[in-house]
Specification:
Strand order of the largest sheet: 1-3-2-4-6-5
CATH superfamily: Uracil-DNA glycosylase-like domain
Strand content: 5-15%
Number of helices: 8
Structural class: alpha/beta
CATH architecture: 3-Layer(aba) Sandwich
CATH class: Alpha Beta
Order of helices and strands: HHEEHHEHEHEEHH
Length: 244
């Protein structure tokens, strides 16, 4: 049932045209393309989340890349950021392969769902505050359909702020002092979720060494540990309740 609900959500999301600037940009890029992808039929629509409907770990990025997700139709697919992310997810046991090239490449995620704060490729990778606010409805809808979530990994400050805003919008006001973004930071939220922070695997960060593979791997391994601890804790609670 969860998979069917997520599929229905995807059908609605991919028809969204609420942000005129983003619609114009994604469609212009899809029409003009670039020389190395001249033979591609670009997706050119909002990009849905991807992964396991029973996920305990949510990964939130910024937005689809103009010639990555906007081309392939799958989040973090077809660009260097995706190579880094899915390589890390594979190493942590969340993915069956370390690459994400196209929608039909056989990639399967286990216990993880990957999504973004904005669903359309923005000019110069910078959605406006209004666009992020408008797009929040899709993240909220996903959260409602992923009831097993225990851990959220945010990739970059924009994703961090967008997720905290979503927490507040769904009735879980963020504690004060507000959880700060820093690579490797870990915060327990009032909703019961654990928030893990990582720099975004953009080329700006990976080419300069601001984010290294071991740094990303440590965050994703921590997510694995926390998801497992949460599952074990729930089993103990159920066992005690049955014995009461």
């Amino acid at each position: 049932m969860a998979s069917e609900d997520l599929a229905r959500l995807e059908a609605r999301l991919t028809r969204c045209r609420l942000c005129p600037r983003l619609v114009a940009h994604r469609e212009r890029v899809a029409k003009e393309r670039v020389a190395r992808f001249r033979d591609w039929q670009y997706w050119g629509r909002p990009v849905p989340g991807f992964g396991d409907a029973a996920a305990r770990v949510l990964i939130v990025g910024l937005a689809p890349a103009a010639h990555g997700g906007n081309r392939t139709g799958r989040i973090f697919t077809g660009d260097e950021s995706g190579n880094w992310l899915f390589g890390g997810l594979h190493a942590a046991g969340f993915a069956n392969q370390p690459t994400s090239v196209r929608r039909d490449d056989g990639l399967v995620l286990r216990d993880a769902w990957v999504t973004a704060a904005a669903r359309c490729a923005p000019p110069v990778n910078r959605p406006t505050r209004h666009e992020l606010d408008t797009c929040r409805r899709w993240l909220l809808a996903e959260l409602a359909l992923l009831p097993r979530l225990r851990v959220v990994v945010v990739l970059g400050r924009v994703a961090h702020d967008a997720f905290l805003a979503a927490e507040g919008a769904r009735g879980h006001p963020v504690q004060q002092p507000r959880p700060a973004f820093a690579h490797g930071a870990e915060h327990r939220l009032p909703s019961g979720l654990t928030l893990l922070c990582s720099y975004h695997p953009s080329q700006q960060n990976t080419f300069t060494g601001r984010l290294t593979r071991p740094m990303l791997d440590r965050v994703l391994r921590r997510a694995t540990t926390l998801a497992g601890e949460s599952s074990a804790s729930r089993r103990r609670m159920v066992t005690r309740a049955r014995g009461a």
